[in-house]
């Protein structure tokens, strides 16, 4: 199976979470709209997606969800067409990662597209490239997902997945919340229902249906006000 190359892949930016660990900052502002270096953190993704050729992006929302269209608009100022899946309004709660993606799936694969980009709106990865060549390699692989991994942060020392090193050993790394996916990964998930992504990824790895790649650029999963504050000063 190969990707429909007649149109660029679409992307979903996951932004429905409450951001409990970031309180009180997130009591009145959704976590992905908190600024980093003067720009809402979600905007770093939107600009990168547009730079790399993605033209249509869906943002799923739940907590304080009206602030997203009010802040980001229709996406035209980023060179994008933005769409919103308001899970709070439509389902009364956030649907978790797999549930949110499955519910958005008809739009993500519309027009014969067979894959899509996935990125969490509350990470900061300014060096990541949503590379069309990576999407093409993914299309040739036949896999259900391709995940980028980063060194284990201090709050998650045990990591998520093992990846082979150049000398043939295995190293445990953390899922960076950056991925390419196919619909088949979500076959067992019902649209509109809460469902976690982690078990699906582990199941896919056991079946050798998921690719792993190390990401070496800047990356932060911003989980505390102190982490957020530390990013407000440009690196020397």
Proportion of residues in helical segments: 25-40%
For the termini, the CA-CA separation is 46 Å
H/E element string?
EEEHEHEHHEEHEEEHEEH
The secondary structure category is alpha/beta
Rg measurement, Å: 17 Å
- Count of DSSP E strands? 12
Mean pLDDT: 92
Beta-strand residue percentage: 15-25%
Return residue spans where pLDDT drops below 50 for at least 5 consecutive residues: 1-5
CATH topological fold name: Spore Coat Polysaccharide Biosynthesis Protein SpsA, Chain A
CATH hierarchy, class: Alpha Beta
Oligomer status: single chain
- Described by the principal axes of the CA atoms, the overall outline is globular
CATH superfamily: Spore Coat Polysaccharide Biosynthesis Protein SpsA, Chain A
Question: What's a quick, concise take on this entry?
Answer:
With 236 residues, this protein is α/β, with parallel strands linked by helices.
């Amino acid at each position: 199976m190969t990707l429909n190359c007649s149109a660029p892949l679409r992307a979903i930016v996951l932004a429905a979470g409450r951001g409990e660990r970031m309180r009180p900052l997130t009591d009145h502002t959704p976590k992905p709209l908190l600024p980093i270096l003067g720009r809402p953190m979600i905007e770093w993704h939107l600009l990168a997606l547009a730079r790399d050729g993605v033209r249509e992006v869906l943002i799923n929302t739940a907590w304080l969800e009206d602030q997203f269209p009010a802040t980001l608009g229709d996406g035209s100022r980023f060179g994008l067409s933005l769409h919103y899946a308001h899970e709070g309004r439509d389902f009364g709660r956030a649907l978790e990662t797999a549930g949110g993606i499955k519910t958005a799936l008809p739009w993500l694969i519309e027009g014969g597209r067979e894959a899509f980009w996935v990125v969490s709106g509350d990470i900061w990865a300014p060096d990541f490239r949503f590379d069309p060549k990576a999407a093409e390699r993914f299309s040739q692989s036949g896999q259900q997902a391709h995940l980028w991994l980063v060194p284990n942060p201090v709050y998650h020392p045990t990591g998520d997945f093992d990846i082979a090193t150049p000398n043939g050993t295995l190293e445990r790394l953390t899922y960076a919340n950056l991925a390419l996916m196919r619909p088949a990964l979500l076959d067992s998930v019902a649209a509109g229902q809460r469902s976690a992504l982690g078990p699906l990824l582990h199941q896919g790895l056991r079946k050798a249906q998921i690719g792993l790649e190390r990401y070496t650029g800047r990356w932060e999963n911003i989980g505390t006000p102190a982490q957020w504050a530390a990013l407000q000063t440009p690196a020397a």
